[in-house]
Amino acid sequence: MKGIFPVDKFMEIETPFYFYDTSLLSKTLEEINREAGRHDNFRVHYAVKANANPKILNVIRHYGLGADCVSGGEIKAALRSGFPHDRIVFAGVGKSDWEIALGIDNDIQCFNVESIPELEVIDEIARAKGKIANVAFRINPDVGAHTHANITTGLAENKFGIPMEEMEPVIRLAVNMKNVKFRGLHFHIGSQILDMGDFEALCNRINDLQQQLERHHIIVESLNVGGGLGIDYHEPDRAPVPDFKGYFNTYARFLKLRHHQTLHFELGRAVVGQCGSLITRVLYVKDGVSKKFLILDAGMTDLIRPALYQAYHKIENISSDGPMETYDVVGPICESSDVFAKAADLNCSRRGDFIAIRSAGAYGEIMASQYNCRKLPDGYVSEELNIDY
Ligand code: LLP
């Protein structure tokens, strides 16, 4: 065992694979329930897009979170894992007809609607089924977030949501439709946000919008502020459970919630990010012209975040206690961007050593691909390997 990793148990498993520490996941969920539970009207949904491994979904469902889905496949995964249908919300800029029908057939809690044409299709499909679908409008709040440009979503230039200026006419349109029921407003400004000031800015914007709607006697039952709370990729062991207290308190302090309103959150990364690592083995140590390459059996097909977003993930050799050496850590895929880290310091490494790529529980396994005809990585939870921390 080195750190949190049962290296002896890993010997029997084909690499690369994802390893999830379910005791950390449970601790994280307990903290979410404790901190959100201090506020009567806060409700937390899990953003299934971060990790839909059924073993992970099962644990999350057990702690009573709802599910935030962005496709029919995610709705099916949530239902299969036992999430109650009336705790499932469905978002996304491009919902297909069959996905909308699936949501209506299963009487999901709410559709987070992103355009007028989408609203019309939901109304039409609900009418054909003789049902009424709950809808909330995703409003683009034009609030920036201090995060990577590819994961910022709340700016006017992004494709997401309905512009603020169109909010009122769209609500009026919905109120006059027979087969949809207007329930609330939905926002999401981006992901991997560590600056609470960004969430505060969202609160201020929502306060203004609420005032504007109240002047026109429009009642909003629920507000959904999306997700976005970040994790510490640089020091995953420093505070493995994110600062949920600070996060929920920011909303409690700055958002002027009306007494009849519920406030919904859709957290993904902060729930599952730190509990997962990609476990891989060193295939070769290769001497380059001016550097050493550590060639792993995992590549960008298993964890695409470094290649796609230049994201940092801490890398550790969990088989070696040798002196530190500097390596470029790369995968076997035929792409120059298949690099996990440049000039990373690791314990002196040899062929066969186990390497852990940390903080990979969110947007890791679920974003894996079969490029180069590779096998998708499996995910194992600590319980399955009989590990008792
Ligand atoms: N709600 C909505 C409407 C979202 O679009 C997202 C994430 C979430 C909630 C959950 O956000 P979280 O709490 O996980 O930040 N693949 C990227 C992240 C994409 C996030 C997309 N939307 C990455 O690996 O960093």
Summed up, what is this model?
28% of the residues lie in helices and 23% in strands. It has 389 residues and is α/β, with parallel strands linked by helices.
Write up what this structure looks like:
With 389 residues, this protein is an alpha/beta fold. The chain has two domains: 7-17 and 274-385, Lyase, Ornithine Decarboxylase, Chain A, domain 1, CATH 2.40.37; 22-273, TIM Barrel (Alpha-Beta Barrel), CATH 3.20.20. Helix content is 28%, strand content 23%. It is built from eleven helices and 17 strands. The protein has helices at 7-10, 22-37, 54-62, 72-80, 97-105, 116-128, 167-175, 196-215, 244-254, 269-272, 305-309; strands at 17-20, 42-47, 66-69, 88-90, 110-113, 133-140, 162-163, 180-186, 222-224, 262-267, 276-287, 292-296, 315-317, 324-330, 339-347, 354-357, 378-381. Strands 1, 11, 12, 13, 14, 15, 16 and 17 form an eight-stranded mixed beta sheet that branches. The chain has an eight-stranded parallel β-barrel with strand order 2-3-4-5-6-8-9-10, surrounded by five helices. Strand 4 (88-90), helix 5 and strand 5 form a beta-alpha-beta unit. The model has no long low-confidence stretch (mean pLDDT 95). Ligand LLP binds at residues 47, 50, 68, 91, 151, 153, 188, 191-192, 226-229, 266-270, 305, 309, 362-363. The modification N6-(pyridoxal phosphate)lysine is found at residue 49. Pfam families: Orn_Arg_deC_N, Orn_DAP_Arg_deC. Homodimer.
